[in-house]
Request: fold
Amino acid sequence: MATLWTGISMEESFVFAGFGGQGVILTGKLLAQAGADYGLQVTWLPSYGPEMRGGTANCTVILSNEPIGSPVVDNPTALVAMNLPSLDRFEKTVAKAGTILINSSLVARPTERDDVRVLNVPANDIAVSLGNSQAANMVALGAIIKATGIISLELIKSTMVRMLSHKDSANLIAVNQQALEAGYSAL
Amino acid sequence: MTGNEAMAEAAIRAGCRAYFGYPITPQNEILEYMAGHIPAVGGAFIQAESEIAAINMCYGASAAGVRTMTSSSSPGISLKMEGISYLAGADLPCVIINVARGGPGLGNIAPAQGDYFQATKGGGHGDYRMIVLGPATIAEAIELVMLAFDLADKYRVPVMVLSDGMLGQMMEPIMLPEPVDPTLLPAKPWALSGARGRDPNVVTSYFIDPGDLNRINTQRQSRYHQIEENEIRYRETETSDATIIIVAYGAVARIARTVVVMARSQGIKLGLVQPITLWPFPYAPLRALSSQVNTILTVEMSAGQMVEDVRLAVADRAKTPFYGELGGLVPTPKDILREVKRNVS
Amino acid sequence: MSVNMDNMVKVFERPRSLTDAQFSYCPGCHHGLVTRIIAHTIDELGIQDRAVVVTPVGCSVIMYEWFRCDGIQAAHGRACAVATGIKRVNPNLIVFTYQGDGDLAAIGTAESIHAANRGENITVVFINNQIYGMTGGQMAPTTVVGQRTTSCPNGRNAQIAGYPIRFAEVIAQLDAPVYVTRQALYDQKRIMAASRAIKKAFQCQVEGRGYSLVEILTNCPTNWRMSPVEANSHLMNEVIRTFPLGDFVDRD
Ligand SMILES: Cc1ncc(C[n+]2csc(CCOP(=O)(O)OP(=O)(O)O)c2C)c(N)n1
Ligand code: SF4
Ligand SMILES: [Mg+2]
Reply:
């Protein structure tokens, strides 16, 4: 297999999960787009429908240097759990030696797994300190790309700027950029 | 771009200039994409009052000679069945996308494959056939939407792209083909363009004289035979030394590609056949493989529909077990691998 | 005047004919309010043991889980035909449909008009929120000119999509209906009037007088992308210009 820019040669599969309004679907899309920009094979598979209204939402993102078969994964190598129900639901599925990122601002309990790497990131608190609690998802994304090393911070930032630029909101872009950086350096 | 949006864009690039639809999850993005984009290339867009209206708008637009499409999801496709029968009976080309979901009835909005019978065996009335194409990836979906328009025009038949909610909602990088200039497509002398300097053209499926209807239907059947002869498409993966083969289409075929890799890494000689044309069905290649392998396992997100065609092809030359998930549940690679292992031991 | 929804719903105690199941509507949605009003009416008229709700396909599709009465789920648009079938074979039942604008006034136009034209002794509650709520905010037949939706991103253009259908007025052209009215819920006074209208419509049926339609202008904060308060003032200032309130038929 070819190697990624960090020297990692593999396939990473991410599950982003949280409340409907936490932006996990968009976060996954951003990672997938950045992966595609980098020339990787990617798939992005959302949960959809009424689930998204108020309930829980999640999406699965796979980045690989090989063609991707199934966009459905049994055992993701990384989980970003933005709230407790997400941790409850996906904790057990994470692959051995995988990564679980817990949004410790909203999730009080530790994980029960001892065979994975656990990162506690107070994503909401960090976002609030930057002046926008909505950016917690970007904090988490910054942290998980650092942890997995699959995409560089620069790349994800430039992809984000491109994805949001048509929404002509310089302010939103600046906040998200800070949030990505803060998440990246929170580890 | 989601699979739905990619299919809509592919249709525009195929020269589709008339789209009529009605909202239904999980295909809304096709309607919404068309609302925003087809008027920009001079195409007609209407959000119809129902799927029945939408398919009949297609009947009209197609009769007027334009490349025409509608899309929906399972419950809406049921409502289109009358119109599809009329399209077939009047020899009109039309592309219909079904982003299938859980059924029967209102079911749910999760991906499912319970519409195979309806699509391939004629959900409407009368002796007709519809070409049915089953993409497994977004790249295939784009290719098959383009192909659907060509086949529809070539044989003057309705063509369905049978997709599902998973493909419709997901994203992956794609390459879009060069757009077709609709003005350069072959002329349609049968179309309703006004009887200026020629005899009137009539588009109808009504032939009161049994002799006439018999003749028309027989001619149509011979076109169906040509389709069966020329248009069968399927994809084989790792079949040459396989002792067990999975047959799966659409989203399941894609998941099964991962299963092949997993099984091979564990020493199981697993292959995969993905029918791409569901009608006409690739009976012959499956028949050929059936004497080489012990087992042909059909996997579907249904209670077992395509498996009937597989069994027709294989007869008793190999074992033909079935594994299905119902109600909108998507089998994971592990689920399928478990079934494979159960059948090799 | 803008109204806080939380205060509004406290007008009623929890009606006996509601189950304990939680509504699945978005916060601030008028669907919840109408559902309560109907339950309250069923209580008042003492018809819980013979009421049958015919649910549509739309945000209220699982309404049968909320009423402590019999219920049936109809195919999209067909509720009036389903109600007809039930009522014709068991006239003792109090049969009502509850339908969105897409369900009643687009795909179900034929069934809706013909049930009214036959004067079926049923009650039709028509939730006109000017949008397809459940499918994520596409244009409805009632979407007002200029209103943006996901399937008319530049606003409804009457040249392409026609004008919003005033369904109560359409039904009022027929000879059979006995009570046809349009109501709204944007302030306390309106809520009381709408409650009275719903009660009257059910009474028509109880008394065996025939078909009634209560059209109610409601909100969809989620797909209008407005707060419930903004949505109320939009209803009060914009929507009623297209959809005037009042009784169109009231036959004795
Ligand atoms: C035959 C068919 N076509 C389309 C749909 C998808 N669908 C579900 S709800 C709905 C319309 C919802 O709008 P409305 O009736 O206005 O109800 P609301 O959700 O706004 O209350 C549609 C088109 C369906 N279920 N069945
Ligand atoms: S989508 Fe709109 S109509 Fe449906 S429950 Fe939410 S607010 Fe109400
Ligand atoms: Mg509505």
